[in-house]
Amino acid sequence: RLSATMAKALNDQVTLEAYSSQVYLMLSSWADNEALDGISSFLIKHSQEERVHMAKIMEYIQERGGKVTIEAIAKPKPEPKNIKECFEMVLKQEIENTEAIYSLVDISVSEKDWATFNFLQWLVAEQREEEKLALTLLDKVTLAGGKDASYASIYELNKDIGNTSQEF
Ligand code: OFO
Fold this sequence. Notes:
Blueprint: H1 4-33, H2 37-63, H3 83-110, H4 114-143, H5 151-162
Helix pairs in contact: 1-2, 1-3, 2-5, 3-4
Bound molecules: hydroxy diiron-OXO moiety.
Hydroxy diiron-OXO moiety binds near residues 94, 97, 127 and 130.
């Protein structure tokens, strides 16, 4: 059974995953408004991926006898000003998620809660992939010219990111 501390920390992670999902929704809506349909669709799919993380953590808490409490989700930060800023926000969000998951791992180790430690390894691996994906996308934006990219390269970038799979 989960300790109260571990249950609370996992519950906070449920809220953070929901917040990440909102961040991706905000970015997707921004991209759509900028006529970047490929980027918008990539981001909305990623928003759903964050909901999947959220649901898996909820399920784990419940399986271990804990109670999930649904909390308010903070409003995402202001919209980006350009594609470069958009993908910098993606990377920042993923780094924040990774750090939060590492703190959960720390708690599981200090409590010798090996079941939770084992469950979290899936999230640790997932974050490694997500940071890699975010870095790759940011590299593509830089190659396309960053915030000074031409319309022609933004056109190609939008198509390319639209075809990028969520899993790397
Ligand atoms: Fe994109 O990550 Fe969830 O945790």
